[in-house]
Amino acid sequence: MSAHLLPPLREVIAKHGLSASKALGQNFLFDEQLLDRIAAIPGPLEGENVYEVGPGPGGLTRALLRAGATVTAVERDRRCLPALSELAEAFPGQLRIIEGDAMKIDPSAEIGAPFHIASNLPYNVGTALAVGWLGGERWPPAWKSLTLMFQREVAERIVAKPGTDAYGRLAILAQWRCDARIAMPVHRSAFTPPPKVMSAVVHLTPKAQPPNVRMATLEALTAAAFGQRRKMLRQSLKGVAHALAALDMVGIAADRRPETLDLTEWVSLASKLDTLC
Question: CA-to-CA distance for 41 and 190, rounded, in angstroms?
Answer without folding.
Answer: 18
